Amino acid sequence: MTALFLRDLRLSVRAGGGALIGILFFLTVVAVIPFGVGPDLKLLSRIGPAIVWIGALLSALLGLDRLFQAERDDGSLDLLVMQETPLVLTVLTKCAAHWTATGLPLVIASPLLGLFMNMNETAIGATALTLLVGSPAITFIGAVGAAVAVALPRGGLLVSILVLPLTIPVLIFGVSATYAAVEGPQPFLPPFLILMALTLFFAVLGPAAAALALRNTTD
């Protein structure tokens, strides 16, 4: 599992720029918002957490189609399915490597982008924390879409279409927790705990569903 994690981590960084493309897209989405809404600092501060979360969500969707594509192209996907190690653990490891290469840089970059939106320290910290907790759920959900579309040519758009509606609850509770953090610790906890529960739920369901889809694809 460690060797697979390190291999996928290297491939995620090398393939198409990986983390760099995600960060650049994240930066572009957030940076153009002030030009669209005008120089109203109060408005930017109010909508900032939602914009940062939406930018991170869209950026996370960019590389999901490549989650199993390399194994499909070189024929090693069949070996992963037939090996003694449970396929669920293999998918979980690949999801962890993918999030480390593409999701974690977005979390690290979010405080800087929060400054672009005139967010205060509490909102910036809450946004980074909710992204750290909630963004893995996007990867686990995306693994299912990537497994379904792995056998299809140019399935990148299909993966985004399949995954985006399922990530809406994660977006809702991530933004809600961030806004609640500005009011105080008590309003922050309920949506934040629900966000953690969603991530844990999809950490179990996502790899299992993706493994089932991969087995059906290789049959």
TrEMBL record:
Protein topology in the membrane: Multi-pass membrane protein
Main subcellular localisation: membrane
Keywords for the protein's UniProt record, in alphabetical order: Cell inner membrane, Cell membrane, Cytochrome c-type biogenesis, Membrane, Transmembrane, Transmembrane helix, Transport
Subcellular location, record wording: Cell inner membrane
Transmembrane segments: 12-37, 43-64, 85-108, 128-150, 157-182, 188-214
Single GO BP term: cytochrome c biosynthetic process
GO molecular function: heme transmembrane transporter activity
GO cellular component terms listed in the entry, alphabetical order: plasma membrane
Pfam families: CcmB
Protein task: Required for the export of heme to the periplasm for the biogenesis of c-type cytochromes.
Record-stated family: Belongs to the CcmB/CycW/HelB family.
Entry-linked NCBIfam families: ccmB
Protein name: Heme exporter protein B
